[in-house]
């Protein structure tokens, strides 16, 4: 899984000519510090470095890369259930 994520990020980075930021979300990105650490370490060829202290935090929006990284990597918590509930309520209210 980690290799595939790194491969896709690298491919898109080249295809679109760079990135302003990278966001890791959902289960692996939000909660699994081992997986997200391996992802960031695998992106070192892009000049991205892992902030080890930040990588220990769970469930919060945070900057996962070091300030001197070429591209900031963010952890962004998601709440799919709330989004589904709001969209369902909007449909029901019509």
Question: Can you put this structure into words, describing what you see?
Answer:
The protein has 94 residues and is mostly helical. The protein has a single domain, classed as ATPase, nucleotide binding domain (Nucleotidyltransferase, domain 5). The chain has helices spanning 2-16, 26-31, 33-42, 80-93, and strands at residues 22-24, 62-63, 73-75. A 3-stranded mixed sheet has the order 1-3-2. α1 packs across α3. The longest helix has 15 residues, at 2-16. It is globular, with a radius of gyration of 15 Å.
Summarize the structure.
This protein has four helices and three strands; from the N terminus they run αβααββα. The protein is mainly alpha-helical and 94 residues long.
Shape: globular
CATH homologous superfamily - what is it? ATPase, nucleotide binding domain
The CATH class turns out to be Alpha Beta
Share in helix = 40-55%
State the helix count: 4
What is the CATH-assigned architecture? 2-Layer Sandwich
* Beginning-to-end CA distance, first to last residue: 41 Å
Descriptors:
94 residues; mainly alpha; Nucleotidyltransferase, domain 5; 3 strands; globular
Helix-strand layout with pairing:
Layout: H1 2-16, E1 22-24, H2 26-31, H3 33-42, E2 62-63, E3 73-75, H4 80-93
Parallel strand pairs: 1-3
Antiparallel strand pairs: 2-3
Helix pairs in contact: 1-3
């Amino acid at each position: 899984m980690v290799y595939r994520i790194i491969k896709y990020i690298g491919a898109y980075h080249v295809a679109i000519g760079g990135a302003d930021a990278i966001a890791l979300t959902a289960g692996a990105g939000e909660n699994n510090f081992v997986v997200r650490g391996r992802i960031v370490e695998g992106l070192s060829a892009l000049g991205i470095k892992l902030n080890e202290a930040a990588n220990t935090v769970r469930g919060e929006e945070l900057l996962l890369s070091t300030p001197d990284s070429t591209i900031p990597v963010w952890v962004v918590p998601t709440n799919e259930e709330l989004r589904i509930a709001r969209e369902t309520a909007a449909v029901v209210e019509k």
